[in-house]
Amino acid sequence: MKSVKTKKLISEILVNGILLLLCIIWTLPTLGLLVSSFRPQEAVNSTGWWTAFDLSEETDQPRFTIDNYRQVLMGKDMTYVNADGETVQASGDNLSTAFINSITVTVPATIIPIFIAACAAYAFSWMKFKGRKFFFVLVVALLVVPLQIALIPILRDYTKLNLNGTFLAIWLAHTGFGLPLATYLLYNYISGLPREILESAFLDGASHFTIFLRLILPLSVPALASFAIFQFLWVWNDLLVALVFIGSKPDVAVLTQRLQEMVGSRGQDWHLLTAGAFVTMLLPIIVFFSLQRYFVRGLLAGSVKG
Amino acid sequence: MKNKRENKFTTSIGRLVISLFVPVVAFVVMWQGFIFLRDSEAPKLLTAIIAILWGVGGVGLLYFLTNWIVDQLPLKWRGGLRPFVFVGPALAILSWYLLIPTLRTLYASFFDAQTDSFVGVTNYIFAFTDPKMLESFRNNLLWLIVGTSLSVIFGLLIAILADRSRFEIVAKSLIFMPMAISFVGAGVIWRFIYFYKPPSFEQIGLLNAFLVSLGGEPQAWLTLRPWNNFFLIAILVWLQTGYAMVLLSAALKGVPQELLEAARIDGASEVQIFFRILIPYIKSTIITVSTTIIILTLKIFDIVFVMTNGNYGTEVMASQQYKQMFKFQHFGRGSAVAILLLIAVIPVMWYNLKSFGKQEAF
User: Fold this and answer.
1) Cβ contact B166–A16 (<8 Å)
2) To the nearest whole angstrom, how far is the Cα of B8 from the nearest Cα of chain A?
3) What is A98-300's CATH superfamily?
4) CB–CB of A36 and B341 under 8 A?
5) CATH class of B129-357
6) CA-CA distance, B77 to A205, in Å (whole number)?
7) B23 preceded by cis ω (within 30°)?
8) What are the residues whose beta carbons fall under 8 Å from the beta carbon of A302, sequence distance 6 or more?
9) Domain boundaries of chain A, sorted by first residue
10) If you count residue pairs, one on A and one on B, with CB atoms under 8 Å apart, how many are there?
11) Does residue A85 surpass a pLDDT of 90?
């Protein structure tokens, strides 16, 4: 007869074993990318990335290199011998420009909608005006609209206003598409703040503007931070909005666009594709791991774009 | 007496002049900034910093100025206008970017390619008869059913296992991490995994290498109809399981321990506890997670666009819509597909908001 102790041990091994297996399956894809991005061109394209750690195989080549990153980031030209034995002169991809563009797009496209949404959420929660309920229902109703609906009309407006391919155009687009959810979530938070704090501020003669800046914004930092992480990730990782409103302007193109172009033009050059992909993933992963607490809190509050 | 009235008159004139003058100056400064940013040849990094300051500062300035203008108005107007200082910009942007475009797209869906002449429901008939469109409906349904259920099942499984493991935090972080990765980045990762080389070469793609080591023939996974759809859906599952896991795990932790212990004392098996207690208890969370992922699958675009560009029988609604608009320049058809997408999303979103409204936020 099995004792309770061995039964417990078996279930513990089973639980951790299955969990470990799932974790390995979930981690391998990213690990393969990371390892490949540091391997020399010939190695990546001839042997699997898992052989990189197989020390029994003798090679006269270095096992790892940062040349791939040099090439995708600085646009350094490279010559190498391809699979058919021809010498290829490859021009670099200069993702560093795209990296700066991504930051220039993402930072304002995160701050602007949050600020505008917080203002609106404050008005919906704590100010009386005609049509308050109607406008709020309108905002919530717009949560259902997929952004695909807006692409053609907005593109036509932008062409008329000569805004296409400017940072302003893409900031405003991301602001428009992120606003319904931002307003809705921040309303949930701001309307739940204790009434007494606001009332005493009013009695002291503070204006709405002062109360909003000095009281509401500092009190809402947890909600603002949660939503900021989400908006940051959406904008940084977005491809569709960038494709439509930036188009093929190379000096404004963001990372996702450039990576997608690389997939088209260098579909077989895995040493460059993996390095390029890792460059695009670096910042989101850092943000994600350092602010995971806010990220989880945001998820639980419903921060998922409809 | 007269003097005082004159004084009052001049101050209100002065106020009026200033309240016109200040916004005009602000507008000119901002406009010059815009022109500079659009046309400048300055170093990239400098332009970037100026652009960020210009954009964020501009929005701050907008609120500050409108609030200031309202302050200059007679007292009786201020109360009525002040709320719109706060809510106005949001309403303006929402109208321009979502509300009016919806109506304009609906309008355009009844017109021809360049929105010149009325064609009735021709574009909708096209949408329901064109083989590519029918293929995309079928695939979207596949994404919806397979993608959603697998994400939820894996999410639930990992949440339950992690809850009983000592390595909960590490395991959850690892499963969760792909959520930070873009669809394009994930596309590159998985193209590498599915990569195919003819059998005479050593396989560098993980899946084919695995297959070969088991004695199989390497396959070109992404062109293998109709199974390639499932290989694309696997990417979504990889990305979204973390989301399902986090929400379900939080819900599981809310199940009262006394309830479980009472059931165990009454002799219920773990399987019974799972189906009779845990599942009913976290039902509303399961619905929230499912509806959220369903909406994502209905609008899925990037994965298909990067992996196959809709070729080899992998077309979905959003990729068809993109092609109709930007490849074939047929705005009527593109708009009709967009409207169908909206119609598909509405009931799911409505259900999602309804079930979400019952939960505590933050």
Assistant:
1) yes
2) 24
3) MetI-like (1.10.3720.10)
4) no
5) mainly alpha
6) 19
7) no
8) A185, B288, B356, B359, B361
9) 4-90, 98-300
10) 331
11) no
Contact B183, A239 (CB under 8 A): yes
> How many residues are recorded in chain A?
306
As a whole number of angstroms, the distance between CA A14 and CA A8 comes to 10
| Chain B interface, best mutation among A152, A174, A232, A243, by max B CB count within 10 A | A152
Cβ within 8 Å, pair A26-B63: no
Best B87, B153, B345 member to test A by mutation, with max A CBs in 10 Å, is: B87
Q: Are B335 and A152 within 8 A, CB to CB?
A: yes
Look at residues A208, A295, A146, A193 and name the one whose alpha carbon lies nearest to residue B63: A208
| Residue in B closest to A134 by C-alpha | B91
Over residues B144-181, the pLDDT tens digits come to: 999 999 999 999 999 989 888 888 888 888 998 898 89
**Contact: A112, B59; criterion CB under 8 Å:** yes
pLDDT digits (tens, 9 = 90+) for B286-308: 888 898 899 889 989 989 988 98
How do A78-81 and A87-90 pair as beta strands?
A: antiparallel
Q: Where are the domains of chain B?
A: 2-108, 129-357
8-state DSSP, A39 = S
Three-state secondary structure along A60-127? CCCCCCCHHHHHHHHCCCEEEECCCCCEEEECCCCHHHHHHHHHHHHHHHHHHHHHHHHHHHHHHHHC
Is A274 in contact with B218 (CB distance < 8 Å)?
no
CB-side neighbour CA atoms (13 Å) of A250:
5
pTM: 0.85
Asked if the Cβ–Cβ distance from B193 to A26 is below 8 Å, we say no
The overall average pLDDT reported for chain A is 83
Interface test with A, best of B181, B245, B247, B287 (most A CBs within 10 A): B181
